[in-house]
Structure formats: structure tokens, C-alpha cells
Design goal:
The complex is a heterodimer of chains A (about 400) and B (about 160). Chain A is mainly α. Chain A is built from 12 helices and 7 strands. In chain A, the strands form 3 sheets. Chain A has a 3-stranded antiparallel sheet with strand order 4-3-7, with no helix packed on it. Residues about 25-70 of chain A have low confidence and may be disordered. With about 160 residues, chain B is mostly helical. Chain B contains 2 helices and no strands. Classes of the chains: A mainly alpha (about 400), B mainly alpha (about 160).
Chain lengths: ~400, ~160
């Protein structure tokens, strides 16, 4: 008994440390990003004019915009933290941005162009006919104006891609070591990490796959486990405010879109005759009403992955927005009065700690919900209906 | 609105990465993990089943033993009871025969005492008769010494005799 208790604590302590650290560092990173320009208002302004005169018309860094208006633009600031980026921003100390440049890959009619995002100098420079505008790559003409006609595909390794790759590597490393420990510990009780992972695996198998899918659950189990762990680890990485976390991977609609499409494709491939029959030949309905019912059924079918996509995206993004919102409060009040900002910071940190705990729950819950709904959709696709009896 | 516009690059990389991850994990992580979990569950279930079987056998054995023990106990009780009865019988018989024997002895003794008494009585009677006859002879001899007395006595007795 004592032993298990200590073991649980040995898992809890790192999580707590990460949480404390995360609140602290998102606080400090945020603070340096925006508080410094507010205080040294005039000097920054001067600095801008002298060093970046040639590109001042495209000057869009949030710090400058914020203090030019004399207040913190919380909405814009939050969006920038949630959105994808071409460099991995860690902190801004004074006017030095500390960020990890990420590779930019552009496919256009001239072929594939690859270079590091540092060539753009945070939106201040053009490179190979492209530049950064509000964090997005845009094609420019030789005179520096935006070329709206140019077609190109931006396949860059962005912050979200990089974060996803890191989390996937971590996930693979964890699961391979677990698989190795199973091989080594054959037939014995699991130990350490394998114990923790097995709890989740058994939960997905016994509480999600078996009751939702039925006897054919074995076939879908690897996919369900993969999405569960993929979403869960990316949710957790999203809660860590600095490298290698801090990206809003599962709160990005492209990621959730791909996940939902995977679920949809697997559902469609495995759909049996009764599943498709329900959609294209609604049983027990007069044929005259089919023209009405079939579109509804098709919308219902497409609705499922869309719901999956939006739920995960909205939940994770909302969590990030709330946490960032609490921190923005500090600087909004700080811009009015420094003492007020300090006072509010106590409340903000307290609320953010609470929110982080809530987000830990949400990280698990959303991974679970996505997996459960996918399992339910698979279950409906492979279920054997007996129309005659039911309708 | 920027938030709900999926980026092409991200979709591209996500699709590739996720497909690879799905494949690799299915092949190298989930398969061995799920297999060994299933094997372990099977072996645990088997062990539990055989334990249950052994338990059943044990209880059957125990029941057998109990039955045997009960039987033995019943047999012992029976034997004890029989022995008791036998003892009682023997005692009762012995008592009875002893009583009979005693009775017989007493009867015999009584009879012999009676006969001895009768004998003694008879002897006494004859002795008394002999003595009294002797005494009467002596008395008579003394009394009938003179003739007159003898004649009066005979007369007296003759008077008392009536002829029928």
C-alpha cells in the first residue's frame, strides 16, 4: 500500500513541477514580450524608425502596434500565440527575439525552395520572392509589394509541425520502450511506465473499443490507441508553455481535420452493407421520401467527422485562450497602473494554475471523447442491422 | 477567421506523419503490447481456472473425507452401543442366573432345613413317646403296686369305654 502511494507520488511530482514551471514561464515570457515595450515607449519607437525604415510600412509585430496605440491589444496577442508560426518563439528580452528558426519549404512554379525562416528576419526582410506578413508567407514582387496573383504551396515545417514531430518522437520512444519492457517481462506483471501505459491501453480497449464496436473491436484497436495517445500527448505538450511545448497542435483545425478525415475514411472503408444501406436506401421509409431522406443521411454521415474536428479544435483552443486571457489581464491592468497590474497578477496566476489543472483534465477528456466517438462511428459501420425486426 | 482556416502545409505534414505513426505504432508497439497483454490475461485466466479446479477437487476430497469420517464415527458409535448392550445383557444374565442359583440354594437349604427339622421333630417325638411311655410305665408301675388301685383304674377306664 505504502509502496503504491509512493509510486503515484513519483508520477505526480514531475507533473506538478511542470505545471508550476509552466505557469511561471508563460508568465515571464509573456511579460518580457509586452511589458518592456510599454514601459520604454519612446525608445522603442525611435529604434523602429532607425533600423527598419525600409520595411516600416509592413511593420506588424504586435509589440509595436500595441504600444503605438498606448495599450495592450489582448485579442491580437492571444491569436498570435494560438496561431501557427514559422519560427519557434521562446522569449523576447529587450528587443532581441529569442526564437528557433524553422525550415520554410515553398513549392511554386520554379520548383521547391527550402531555407530557414530566419532569412525573413521576423517579417523585416524578403527572401527568394517571399516575405512574412503577420506570420504568414506571402509572395512579393521585386519592389516589395505583395503579389496576389502568384500561386505557391507553403509546405513549411511550422511550429505546429515541429511540435507534432517532437511529440510523435517522444510518443514512439515511450511506446517502444513499453513494448520492449513487455518483451523482456514476458507474461509478468507490468512495471513502471508500462504499468501507466497499460492502464490507458486497457481503458481504451475495455471501456471504449469493446462496448462501442462489439466483437470486431480488435481490428480498430491500433487506430483508436494511436489517436488517443497522439491527441493526449499533443494536448499535454500544448500545456507546456516553452520549447518543446507551447504550440497549439491539437487546437489547430488542420490537425483535427486530418484526424477526423482518418476516422471518416476508416469508417467508410469498413462500412458494411447495412451501414451504407441505411444511408442510400433508408429502410422502412416509402421510396417517395428517399429524395428527402438520402441527403439528410449523407449530411448526417459527413456531420460526424466535422463534429469531431470542431470539438477537439474548439476545446483545446478555448483552454489556451482562457489561460492567455488571464495573463493578458495583467498587462491590460499594468498599462493603466503598475500596482494594479501587480495586484491582478496574483489573481491571474492563481486562476491560471487552476485552469492548468482543468486543462490537464481536458487534455485527457478530449482525447478520450475523440477516441470514444471514433469507436462509436466504427461500431455503427460494422454493426449488423436487422431492419425487418426493428422498423 | 484565421483560426478556422486549415493550413495546407500542416495538413500535408500531419497526414504524412500520422500515417507513418499509425503504421509504425500498430506494427511495433500496439501489436506486441496487445499480444502480450492478451497472453498474460489468458495465462492469468488459466491459472485462475486451474486454481478453481484444484479448489473444487480439494473440497470434493474434503467432503469425501468428511463422509468417511462420519461413517467411521457412526460405526464406532454402533460398536460402542452394541458393546454396551452386550455388557448390559451379560450383566443382566449373570444377575439373573446368580439370583436363580441363589434362590435354588436357598430353596434347597430351606428344604434340607425343613427335612432336618422334620427329622429332628420325628426323632424328638419318638424320644418323647419312648420317654413318656417309659415314664408312664414307671408311674403306672409305681401306682399299680397295690391290687385295689389296679382294679379301680381298670374299672374306671372300662366305664369310659362305650361299646358301639
Amino acid at each position: 500500500m505504502q509502496h503504491t502511494k509512493r509510486k503515484i507520488f513519483s508520477y505526480l511530482i514531475p507533473i506538478l513541477l511542470v505545471l508550476v514551471y509552466s505557469t511561471y514561464s508563460s508568465f515571464s515570457a509573456f511579460g518580457q514580450d509586452h511589458a518592456v515595450p510599454t514601459i520604454t515607449d519612446s525608445s522603442t519607437h525611435h529604434h523602429n524608425e532607425s533600423s527598419h525604415q525600409e520595411s516600416s510600412h509592413a511593420e506588424s509585430s504586435h509589440a509595436e502596434t500595441a504600444h503605438e496605440e498606448g495599450k495592450v491589444d489582448a485579442g491580437k496577442l492571444i491569436m498570435e500565440h494560438i496561431a501557427d508560426a514559422h519560427d519557434w518563439h521562446i522569449a523576447t528580452i529587450g528587443h532581441t527575439h529569442i526564437s528557433i528558426p524553422l525550415p520554410v519549404i515553398i513549392k511554386d512554379d520554379q520548383g521547391i525552395k527550402m531555407f530557414m525562416s530566419s532569412k525573413f528576419e521576423h517579417g523585416h526582410a524578403m527572401y527568394e520572392g517571399y516575405k512574412l506578413l503577420e506570420g504568414k508567407i506571402v509572395a512579393v514582387n521585386s519592389d516589395g509589394n505583395i503579389n496576389h496573383e502568384a500561386t505557391f504551396y507553403d509546405l513549411s515545417i511550422t511550429k505546429n509541425v515541429a511540435s507534432m514531430l517532437i511529440s510523435v518522437l517522444v510518443l514512439c520512444w515511450i511506446l517502444f520502450s513499453v513494448a520492449g519492457s513487455y518483451r523482456k517481462n514476458h507474461g509478468r506483471a507490468p512495471k513502471g511506465l508500462a504499468n501507466l501505459i497499460e492502464m490507458a491501453i486497457l481503458f481504451i480497449r475495455d471501456e471504449v473499443a469493446k462496448p462501442s464496436i462489439g466483437p470486431k473491436y480488435q481490428k480498430f484497436l491500433p487506430y483508436l490507441l494511436t489517436i488517443f495517445f497522439f491527441i493526449f500527448i499533443n494536448n499535454l505538450f500544448g500545456l507546456v508553455p516553452i520549447f518543446p511545448g507551447g504550440a497549439n497542435v491539437t487546437g489547430n483545425i488542420a490537425i483535427t481535420l486530418v484526424l477526423a478525415v482518418f476516422t471518416f475514411v476508416i469508417t467508410s472503408i469498413n462500412g458494411n452493407s447495412s451501414y451504407w444501406g441505411h444511408i442510400f436506401m433508408p429502410p422502412g421509409v416509402p421510396k417517395a421520401l428517399w429524395f428527402l431522406l438520402i441527403p439528410i443521411e449523407i449530411i448526417g454521415m459527413l456531420n460526424k467527422p466535422i463534429v469531431l474536428m470542431i470539438r477537439l479544435f474548439a476545446n483545446i483552443t478555448a483552454g489556451h485562450i482562457i489561460i492567455l486571457g488571464f495573463f493578458s489581464l495583467i498587462f491590460i491592468f499594468g498599462a493603466m497602473n503598475e500596482g494594479l497590474g501587480l495586484g491582478v497578477s496574483v489573481l491571474s496566476v492563481a486562476f491560471t494554475v487552476f485552469m492548468n489543472f482543468l486543462e490537464l483534465l481536458v487534455a485527457f477528456l478530449q482525447a478520450y471523447v475523440f477516441t470514444l466517438l471514433s469507436a462509436l462511428y466504427f461500431g455503427s459501420a460494422v454493426e449488423e442491422h436487422h431492419h425487418e425486426e426493428h422498423h | 477567421m484565421e483560426l478556422v482556416k486549415p493550413g495546407l502545409g500542416l495538413i500535408f505534414w500531419m497526414t504524412i506523419t500520422f500515417s507513418i505513426v499509425l503504421f509504425i505504432l500498430s506494427k511495433f508497439a500496439w501489436k506486441p503490447i496487445l499480444n502480450s497483454i492478451r497472453e498474460r490475461e489468458d495465462s492469468i485466466n488459466n491459472a485462475l481456472d486451474s486454481a478453481e479446479e484444484a479448489r473444487k477437487q480439494m473440497s470434493a476430497l474434503k467432503a469425501d473425507n468428511e463422509k468417511l469420517l462420519n461413517q467411521a464415527r457412526a460405526e464406532r458409535d454402533l460398536m460402542l452401543k452394541e458393546a454396551h448392550e452386550m455388557k448390559d445383557n451379560i450383566i443382566a444374565q449373570a444377575k439373573k442366573s446368580a439370583e436363580e442359583e441363589g434362590h435354588k440354594i436357598i430353596l434347597k437349604a430351606n428344604a434340607s432345613i425343613e427335612s432336618a427339622k422334620i427329622n429332628a421333630m420325628n426323632e424328638l417325638k419318638t424320644q418323647v413317646a419312648i420317654l413318656s411311655v417309659d415314664l408312664a410305665e414307671k408311674v403306672l408301675r409305681k401306682k399299680m403296686e397295690d391290687r385295689a388301685q389296679q382294679e379301680s383304674f381298670v374299672n374306671e377306664n372300662l366305664k369310659s369305654i362305650t361299646l358301639k
